[in-house]
Amino acid sequence: MARQNKEAISVPEGAERILLHACCAPCSSAIVEWMLAHGLHPVVYYCNPNIYPLAEYTKRKEESKRHAVSLGLTWIDDDWAHAEWQACVRGLESEPERGGRCLRCFTMRLTATARKAVELGCDTFATTLASSRWKSLEQIEQAGRAAEAAVGGQARFWAQNWRKGGLQQRRIELLREHGFYNQQYCGCEYSQRQSVEDTETVALGQQPLQG
Ligand code: SF4
User: Fold this and answer.
1) Containing domain of residue 119, as a range?
2) Total domains in the fold of the chain
3) Which atom number of ligand 1 is nearest to the Cα of residue 99?
4) Tens of pLDDT along 20-41?
5) What value does the mean pLDDT take over residues 168-190?
6) Full-model pTM
7) CA distances from 207 to 13, 60, 163, 187, 202 (A)
8) Ligand 1, closest atom to CA 50?
């Protein structure tokens, strides 16, 4: 039987060594805190070739590293393979957030995470993407399952809604406590453009598409 807690988050049966894909420090903070409180010491993997430009990527990466290292966790990163990421989402540039481009983006990052998990001998991988209210949990789960299949099930995807169990509120508190850099757009150049358009829409007194 899976280890349960009353907060609607449970550790999957057999999960011992966790590779946690971290999209950024703010999204990681409450999840890492929860894992540590439940006896799990994840390896934190920063694999986000989607982020643009490089300066933004570096800023988020350094925050992620600062956070993980301050907790004594192993933190590793991947290359900024942005050209590869662009090739992966080609033809989907105009898709809205939560559309086909995002599913492909999640699948690319989580497949890399699954491969890294196998390489490191981790039995389970999870992602902090599933803590953001702007992202589709269904897409994240679909991407995680595809990643698990890509490694023949050698590492299992921990599909978890990380907004539950009070973690959404805790994320806000930790963001303030640590003074994390809090980005204003999802990550890629297309979401950056959307963010600018939304800001202009708000300035005109209209409702943004999201925000
Ligand atoms: S909006 Fe975010 S999730 Fe979607 S493709 Fe861009 S970086 Fe990836």
Assistant:
1) 18-183
2) 1
3) 4
4) 999 999 999 999 999 999 999 9
5) 94
6) 0.91
7) 44, 28, 25, 22, 6
8) 7
